[in-house]
Structures are given as C-alpha cells and as structure tokens.
Automatic annotation (TrEMBL):
Keywords: Membrane, Transmembrane, Transmembrane helix. The chain crosses the membrane at residues 7-27, 39-60, 72-90, 102-123. The keyword Transmembrane helix applies. The lineage of its organism: Bacteria, Bacillati, Actinomycetota, Actinomycetes, Pseudonocardiales. This is Uncharacterized protein.
Amino acid sequence: MRGRDWAYLVWLVVCSLFLAAFEVLYLPLRFDGYLLPMLWGGFPFPITAVVALLTVPMFVRRAGQLSPSLAIAGAPLAAWLLIVLVSAFSGPGGDIVLIPDWRALLLLGGGSLAGAVALGGVIGRAARR
C-alpha cells in the first residue's frame, strides 16, 4: 500500500470511530417532542441502528478495496466495535452511555453483523482470485 492508501485507511477508521460515537449517543432518540416531534406518545426511534447497518459495511468494503487482508479490511469494523463496546461499560462517575435495552442490541447486531458479512465478502472475493 502507498502512503495515500494508508491515509485513506486512517480516514475510514476515524470516520468509523466518530460514527460509532454518534450512533451510541443518539440511540435513545424517541418521539417525545424534544428532538423529534410528538408522535406515538414517546415511541423509541433507533435510527442510528439503521445508520450503522448502512455505514459499517460500506467502510469495510472501502477498506477492502485497499487491501483484502483481514487486518486492513477489518480495521473500520474493529474501531466501530471498540467504541460501541467501551460505551457499554461505566465511566468514572458510574454513567453508562449505551442504553441497556433492545435498541442497544439492534445497534450492536446491525453494525457488527453487517460489517462481518461485508468483511467475509471481501475475504471471499480475495480468495477466489
């Protein structure tokens, strides 16, 4: 890989880190009248799980275009998982950022499973060549 490819990989990993933090912080969105309009009496709206479902595989495929090795193609997925899993543990004040309910499972399952499928596709295409 050339220097420009390494810079692009770092860019993909940093974007993955920021998106993971964004997805965890906005996971508790609900239709309660504060950020979203008052519809359905405060029903949860985990749109960030859909964002993870779409962006994590995209980052993995882009990294796989640089190199089909597991370490390089899986770097955005590993960075995303690191942020999501670290946010599940309590901090110094005892606060937990990742909410402990079905939305967290939806976020973790959507992002990690879709990323793993994309990573398997990258490795499978490389093995076929």
